[in-house]
Amino acid sequence: MIHSMTGFGTASRTLAHCVLLVELRAVNSRYLDVNLRLPEDLRAIESQLRELLMSRVQRGKLECRVSIADLPAAQRTLEFNAELVQRLVTTARNVQQIAPDATSLRVADILRWPGVIGEPVLSVDEINGACMAAVDQALVEFNASRAREGAKLGQVILDRAARMGEIIEATAPRIPQIVASYRDKLSAKLVDAGLSPDDDRMRQEIVLFASRIDVDEEISRLRAHLKELEHVFAKGGAVGRRLDFLMQEFNREANTLGSKSADLACTQAAVELKVLIEQMREQVQNIE
């Protein structure tokens, strides 16, 4: 499996009185560039977050944004201090024994008593743990989106590579035909000039021409590069730099093939190869 360098993922954790939100997004980059945007409460785990992100992402410009938003009052978790209420009730009974006419405590009086109802205080460990868990969850979604896009990019590249293979196999058999055609034309010219077609000079010319247009080496290299491309995709992982190198090699061989072209069909084949290589190169720029 290969991954695109572009991706997006989110996750959240609801705590007692707030919501922790994590957002991951990445774009293309030559190297891995991690940018963290954290509230001050989470600065203590910045290095841990960076290590987590770098262990799951190999390449790209990655931004991790973490924010903490307060929950509306109606949604907040409240703590009930039962021990304090018990003391209040006991104290109220003791007062009534001394002063029988004293009014009994009502539920509203108890709830308004300071400390009976309160919001739980989150510890640093709780907030930090929630943040790490949310980032880990966001990474799962983030990498899943990159894998889906990577699969599409890979298919585009393999389709172009298959077309390249067809062009290469159609071009290779043409070279002997071109040499034979050149021999026939040269022989006709020699006959018109009153010379023998079996002249040694003609044989030398044919050998030199065949040498100039010989593209067996370029064809073999292009075939080898196509095999390597298949191997790279089968292996998967962070293959972007390897694929970028292969695109350079493809382009070099296509240029040489074009420079040795001896007829229109070979020239058109070289041009079409270069177009396909450029289309693949554009997609490779997006792969991790």
Structural class, by secondary structure, is: alpha+beta
Helix content: 55-70%
Strand content: 5-15%
Could you tell me the radius of gyration in angstroms? 37 Å
Order of helices and strands: EEEHEEHHEHHHHHH
Uncertain regions spanning at least 5 consecutive residues: none
User: For the report, how would you describe the main beta sheet?
Assistant: 4 strands, mixed
Topology, number of strands: 6
Mean pLDDT: 84
Outline:
rod-shaped
Distance between the termini: 11 Å
Q: What topology, given as strand order, has the largest sheet?
A: 1-2-4-3
Number of domains: 3
Helices, by number, come to 9
Walkthrough of the structure:
By secondary structure, the chain is of the alpha+beta class. It folds into 3 domains: 88 residues, Ribosomal Protein S5, domain 2 (2-Layer Sandwich); 40 residues; 136 residues, no CATH class. 61% of the residues lie in helices and 14% in strands. It has 9 helices and 6 strands; from the N terminus they run βββαββααβαααααα. Strands 1-2-4-3 form a 4-stranded mixed sheet. Strands 5-6 form a two-stranded antiparallel ribbon. The relative contact order is 0.14.
